[in-house]
Amino acid sequence: MRAGTSKITINPDSDVYLSGFPRGRKSSGVHDGIWVRCLSLDDGKNLLSIVTADLWGVLREDVEKIRDALKPDDNRHLLLCCTHVHSAPDMLGIFGPDSKTSGSDERYVEKFRSAVVRCVTESRLSMKDVSMRVATGKPNLKVENFRNPGLVDGVGLTVYFAEKGEKRVHSLTNSIGPAVLSSEDNRLISSDWLHSFYSKTEKQMGGIPLFVQGSLGGIMCPIVASRTFDEADKMGNSMAEYVVGNYRKSIEVHANEIAVIEKAVEVPVENRLMMALSAMGTFRGKIHNRRETKLAVVKVGPLTIATLPGSVFPEVGLEVKAMMKSPHRALVSFANDYLGFIIPSSKFDPTMYEERISLGRDVADILMAEIGQPLGSFLVAGKLAEPRSTERSTQADSA
Asked: What pTM does this model have?
């Protein structure tokens, strides 16, 4: 296995509207850097690039433009995942001053897309032989589910990629870690607790760390003394200590094969507000009565990663993880698109906040059914199947 990494700051060059919290928050400066980070893996046949962006969400339309700029072929796969930061530029358009005014700055959107292309390219050029290790555990973070108290998927997983001699150890951590510790009064660009997590992990391990969110819908909020940058630093340091400490407890795994299934899926849209915002151009995504999105399932040796395009409720995330047959499993939210909250139909309540930022009650059930097919195809008679690299599904047409 070969791996390469890169990171690039994506701070805006001028004041922009910030995503998350009430609309109309305009930035007044930068507290710390926000980043795109890329981990590329190559088994000699397939090349996979996993990108994390310190943004609230990114639309499929932007991901496709990035893919086109990279000119990918059948053995080059891209996962673009957001850390769901609430103090980063509005990439969707829905956080402007009013419902008729987009909050997105197209100059910034183009800067972001260019940064991702450069980051992926640099990571692919920096490939080195690595060993792969995996560790699971529960980060020392107190997170509460205000929608369904007590239901939290608190299990974290970190994959380590160590260069020869362990001079540099890169990492990919999957857990829930709401990046909302800066308050809604904040006007400074920030990656929230991820800033201190990145800094401390890089200092102690030498490599580049990436973080991908788990089942964060619900609403999940950290239990802290105050919503301040000091508390964010404490949380980031705690997560760094967890990742660094778990490396000593990790187990080496053999990962000579990478398999990827990327699947296009259509879901019905019943959220009339989102359709109206799309028609006005406030929301940058194309939404009519249906929305095409993309799912992905990745297998790297004994590790399976499944991605969903939005804020996944823990009920959904836990069910998807239960479908996986691998000993090491990760469910990644906010990947390759943003459909809002992904809510199980049995819990869908139109009077609640999350439903107002959801495309509809059937979305979660369709996505779970669709992702179950590639998850099941990875094992045939106990062996790794040879999946098609890309599928298109129209099963949702009958939903």
From this structure: 0.93
